[in-house]
Amino acid sequence: MNSSPKPSLFVPDPETIRRSRIPDYDGFYAASVADPASFWGNVLKDLHFTKAPTKILDWNPKSFEARWLVGAEGNICENALDRHVRDGFANKVALIWAGDRGEEDIFTYGRLLDQTVRFARILQRLGVGKGDRVTLFLPPTPAQVIAMLACARLGAIHSVVFSGFSQAALRSRLEDFEPKVLVTADCGYRRGKRIPLLETARAARKGLSSIAATLVVPRDASPESLESGERALPDLMEEVRFDGPLSPVPVSCDDPLFVLYTSGTTGKPKGVVHVQLGYMLGTYATTRHIFDLRDSDVYFCVADPGWITGHSYIVYGPLLNRATVLLSEGTPEYPDAGRHWSLIERHRVSIYYSTPTTIRLQMRFGDSWPANRDLSSLRILGSVGEPLNPEAWHWLHRVTGGKLPIMDTWWQTETGMIMVSPLPSTPEKPGSAGRSFPGVVADVVDASGKSLPPGETGTVVIRTPWPSMFRTVFRDPERYRKYWTEIPGAFFSGDSARRDEDGFFFFLGRVDDVIKVAGHRLGTAEIESALITHPKVAEAAAIGKPDELRGEIIKVFVVLHPHATDTPPAHEEIKKHVRTELGGIAEPHEVDIVISLPKTRSGKIMRRVLKAREMGLPEGDLSTLED
Ligand code: WTA
Predict the structure, then answer these.
(1) What is the Cα gyration radius of the chain?
(2) Is the preceding omega at residue 335 within 30 degrees of 0, hence cis?
(3) Counting Cβ atoms within 10 Å, is residue 352 exposed (0-12), middle (13-18) or buried (19+)?
(4) Which residues contact 342 (CB under 8 A, 6 or more apart)?
(5) Is 309 near ligand 1, meaning CB less than 6 Å away?
(6) Per residue in 106-128, pLDDT tens?
(7) What is the mean pLDDT of residues 2-9?
(8) Which helix H or strand E contains 557, and what residues bound it?
(9) What spacing in Å lies between the alpha carbon of 116 and ligand 1's midpoint?
């Protein structure tokens, strides 16, 4: 008998495999990468274009420019809404909204289209047209979804800023993006607490001349008194009440859909640019195959549309698939620890796409919460944002009945779509995100770009272009190039992983100075830049420290100015400072005030040494250490 421990293997039942759209992954995958143009060309047939593409992909390996669907014209909003209404699904539910304070609202495809057209009309009146930029600073409500779709309909470019960001974080994004219109709400709600968004938006936009108008969407019933340059949504809705239909504006393969800011290795977040048509193809295909969407499904993704997961897998991918989407505002523990299980029961959710931190939190609350709810409607589960550890995988699997497939999906803001994931028809290994999605060539390589054998840890790259890849970094093409030159000829993800002998990926974390706190992506440099704006802080270093619940937590080390050492700032004061500068998600969990930081002779902070010390691990090669 072989006694070596094998990772547990979950094999879907034969009926699930038979019903699946891709029953034979291996054959299907091999064909898809042998001839990507025909694989993606086939997907294309489900979508509607006013002009068909003349070429699926035009790839320039010198400039790393990938133009998908060359010659095509179409519109993602038209495909997400009008197409379904035309096909007879005006009365199918598109969006169910569950508010933080127990509110509920339901939009059919017909109603969502109607509201989107009105919103687009309003944006038009405020001067927004094709190519114009609009920043959305909204809570996760239907208005947020409608505003995104309305921008897309006009061929305008949206940039959604997560509503938990601080005034300073919003301001730096506004400064870089220079929108013509800012859309915000009077407030949002989180754990029953009012979040004053309009106040934050007003402070953030001060003196920014690009912003011609601020559109204020009511989240509360109470009317706000408006300042000059602000318009209230209900008044404008009244004005456009009798306006006729508004046709979607056809866009071409190079026209941007959105810019989403995300953290990198420098102090400044980067604006990741996605284009309408390619992004549409990638998000449509991945949502369809990974979540196996059918007309009877109710699909619940726990993300916030303020992040890429919400863009691709709450708004665009599911609506392109004519799904019924549940959008929830708030957190998994409010009003009680059973929030998600209650929503699943109440709305007969069949697909639940969650995050490892959420699952580990639910695990802490205990089995009774899921056990007390009827979860029999569930059929497929998913996870994203950080590695899903085997314990959390097994717990989720068990409390949902022990039979459901779990799609541990790996991807990034830059990739726009899921790149590595199981399919409902493929085997799964807890702790692994499975294998590449059809048409995608993910690889684990060494520093020279050579593929590594099974069992060896290396850097994750993508070898060939994919349709929903980002097209550039807003106003920073050099930063875009860096993704493709780090490992020559391939897209550098910044993640490390190993594969096993069956080709299954096991993701381990970042190789750069990006940390993932409860799935939120933060740059250590961003946190450090915020810290040194504190008058008493001279130098700072931030690291991600492993944490059982949140994956990583933020630990910071600060050196004080000599004059500040007599009256050292309280640790709480330093935490609060980062919170004000960046927002709650970036608040450090631990603060150490130190005399000096380990640095190289050229003055670079050696975060690796701080992290090793923190974890009681060997400090590695210290030959470059200054002192
Ligand atoms: C991490 C989120 C392990 C990874 C969609 C990546 C994951 C970063 C997984 C991107 C997963 C995402 N397993 N790690 N299934 N999914 N990550 O841009 O480090 O917010 O590089 O996009 O999240 O974060 P982003």
Answers:
(1) 24
(2) yes
(3) buried
(4) 373
(5) yes
(6) 999 999 999 999 999 999 999 99
(7) 61
(8) strand 551-560
(9) 31
Query: What does the DSSP assignment read for 295-359?
Result: TT-EEEE-S-TTSHHHIIIIIIHHHHTT-EEEEE-S-TTSSSTTHHHHHHHHHT--EEEE-HHHH
Q: Residue 354 Cα, ligand 1 centroid: separation in angstroms?
A: 13
The closest-lying atom of ligand 1 relative to the alpha carbon of residue 509 is: 19
Atom of ligand 1 nearest to the CA of 433: 15
Share of the chain above pLDDT 70, in %: 98
Identify the residue whose C-alpha is closest to ligand 1 atom 11.
410
DSSP-derived letter for residue 249 is P
**Residue nearest ligand 1's atom 5 by CA:** 412
Q: What atom in ligand 1 is closest to the CA of residue 520?
A: 20
Q: Read off the tokens for 444.
A: 């684990």
Structure tokens at 325: 């989407």
Give, using CA atoms, the residue closest to atom 20 of ligand 1: 521
Q: How far apart are CA 78 and CA 113, in angstroms?
A: 9
Amino acid 2: pLDDT: 43
Asked whether the predicted pLDDT for residue 5 surpasses 70, the reply is no
**Cα–Cα dist 281/53, whole Å:** 12
Q: What is the DSSP string of 376-431?
A: TT--EEEEESS---HHHHHHHHHHTTS---EEEEB--TTT-S--EE--TTS-B-TT
Measuring CA to CA, which residue among 325, 317, 316, 320 is closest to residue 297? 325
Query: HEC profile for 488-517?
Result: CCCEEEEEEEEECCCCCEEEEEECCCEEEE
Instruction: Note the residue count of the chain.
Output: 627
| pTM, to two decimals | 0.96
**Residue 348 Cα to ligand 1 middle (Å):** 28
408 lines ligand 1 (CB under 6 A): yes
Phi, psi of 559 (to 5 degrees): -105, 130
C-alpha–C-alpha distance, residues 132 and 305, integer Å: 21
Q: Provide the H-helix boundaries in 67-189.
A: 76-77, 83-86, 109-125, 142-154, 167-177
- Is 294's C-beta closer than 6 angstroms to any atom of ligand 1? no
Alpha-carbon gap, residue 68 to 276, rounded angstroms? 10
Q: How far is the CA of 335 from the centre of ligand 1 (A)?
A: 28
Would you say residue 625 has pLDDT above 80? no
The ligand 1 atom nearest the CA atom of 510: 19
Q: What is the tally of helices (H) and strands (E) in the chain?
A: 21, 30
Q: Using one digit for the tens of pLDDT, what is the confidence trace for 479-517?
A: 999 999 999 889 999 999 999 999 999 999 999 999 999
- Kindly report the protein residue whose alpha carbon is nearest to atom 15 of ligand 1: 410
Nearest to 64 by CA among 480, 450, 447, 475: 480
For the chain, what percent of residues have pLDDT higher than 90?
91
411 lines ligand 1 (CB under 6 A): yes
Looking at this protein, which amino acid is placed at residue 278? G
Spatial CA neighbour of 577 closest among 596, 564, 563: 564
